[in-house]
Amino acid sequence: MTHKKAHPASFRDPSGFMFVEEGVFKRQINPIYFKQYLALKDSGFFDKLFQKEVLIPHEELSYSSEQIIIQPEQIPFITYPYEWCFNQYKETALLTLKLQKFSLEHGFSLKDASAFNVTFHHGKAIFIDTLSFDFYIENSPWRAYKQFVSHFLGPLLMAHYHGAQSLKLMSNYMDGIPLNMIASMMPFKSKLNPFLYSNIHLLAKFEGKYNEDYKGESKIKSLSKKAQLNIIQSLYDIIKKLSLKEHSEWGDYYNKTNYSDAAFNLKSDIINAWISKLNTKTVIDIGGNDGTFVRRITSDIEHALVCDIDNNAVDFNYKTIKKNKEHFMLPFVLDVLNPTASIGFNNVERDSFIERIVKYQPDVTLALAVIHHMSLSGNISFEMSAQFFAKFSKHLIIEFPKREDSWVQRLLNNKADFKDYFGFYNIDNFEKAYLNYFEIIEKQSIENSERVMYLLKTRHD
Amino acid sequence: MTFLYFDPAMGAMIVQAIVAAIAGVLLFSKNLLLKVKVFLGIVKPKEEDLFDDIDIEKSEIEKKDSSDS
């Protein structure tokens, strides 16, 4: 038996582990889980879920008495819960409940309900932890109920009451948000709501009470399958209806732009021409708002990452993706000034954004109307941003709004007394700094605007 | 219980009996209200949902129906 090195995030479940072999993600299943695996396989449970595109499909590579190796369909770019917009998060919660209901109806049950068991692939949420299904034990409560509340219901309720930025808390509480914290952040009136009272306040109270039972004297009450299904159904109904209170002021962003339709179209045409010239298959749009410019690309793109700092913009994009049934675009929330860090034990369980993008290596990076925000709001020097973008891909399409641009002027005016400090912000300094890392392939001004488009190529290979 | 590699939380296991009872009442009254509304003819037209039903299999049958027509 060869010893495979488990992926650093795959150590909790003794049923098996993920490992990487020649760049391909595979999963080893240990004998302890053989019975479950065979039942799931032989009963057609797996096949049904593959067919419905709710569980990542896999093929069995080898089978021995010591181990079974399966190879799941590879996902080009993994996003984490703290990078999802509100509706993405909602979808992952609903998917988990769907799977639990389906499992119960087929004699199985999800043994855990971690938000990290789900990610996005082909424009929708997909369950990626194949070994999460266990046999249902008659009349037993759902073991993963608490985990579901702290990973899904809690964060979604906090986003509902306090704004979508609450979802970022998951990067700190990767084991779920503590129940007493969720309960303490609910408004008083939530105690009058029977659903919220029982699922949040009462749960937090019971958890507090039984935490002190060190001797393990408490007995678990039995719970009929029908009763468990009632919990699942009521969670589903409430989560499906949850919305953000902060109404998206967003949406009409492109009506607020400071340039004409003609300039907007010209910008799009320039991008299109360059993208098709480079025979681009994969792209990342940093600060991609609602995905407008990626959606206007006419050549065949296989996969596109579209990120933005604004959860509402990402949400708007995600709704469009769902409505149009688009498969190639993956939106997520990203703050370029503070990209997602690597977290977890040893800081290696969940990869940072930079680690993932370097591995992903898109053909082209789009940085449209981003540089002035980075430089003027974030105080990032041209040298620093050039170095940052040079890691992403071989080619960079970057838009530079000149000092005379009204948005740049507005940002500069916000600086008041410090305005002079930003004297460096001009096109000559920009080119000088970027030429240290890139060569200019093409450069084109957008007529009737103070903006210039660049197609750059990295100097290193 | 085999394979329990995280704390299932004793309190959370026990509380589910109460949560389920409340959920049962809520679901029952919701269905009752819907029936009354249907009877009185005051059911609002269903808005286009971003997310579908909880049933993995049923949603497929619906999809098939709509694609056939």
Write the layout of secondary structure elements.
The complex is a heterodimer of chains A (461) and B (69).
Chain A: E1 16-21, E2 24-29, H1 34-42, H2 45-51, E3 58-63, E4 68-72, H3 86-105, E5 108-110, E6 118-121, E7 124-127, E8 133-135, H4 145-162, H5 179-184, H6 194-210, H7 225-241, H8 261-277, E9 282-286, H9 292-295, E10 303-308, H10 311-324, E11 329-333, H11 353-360, E12 364-367, H12 371-377, H13 382-390, E13 395-401, H14 406-414, H15 427-434, E14 438-446, E15 451-458
Parallel strand pairs in A: 9-10, 9-12, 10-11, 12-13
Antiparallel strand pairs in A: 1-2, 2-4, 3-4, 5-8, 6-7, 13-15, 14-15
Chain B: H1 10-40, H2 56-68
Order of helices and strands of chain B: HH
Q: Kindly state the mean pLDDT of chain A as a whole number?
A: 93
Counting helices, strands and paired strands, the structural category of chain B is mainly alpha
Strand count, sense and barrel status of the largest sheet of chain B are: none
DSSP helix fraction of chain B: 55-70%
Distance between the termini of chain B: 48 Å
C-alpha geometry of chain A = globular
Query: Architecture of the largest domain in chain A, according to CATH?
Result: 3-Layer(aba) Sandwich
Helix content of chain A: 25-40%
CATH class of the largest domain in chain A: Alpha Beta
Quickly count the helices of chain B: 2
Short description:
Chain A has 461 residues and is of the alpha/beta class. Chain A has 15 helices and 15 strands. The longest helix of chain B is centred in the middle third of the chain and has 31 residues.
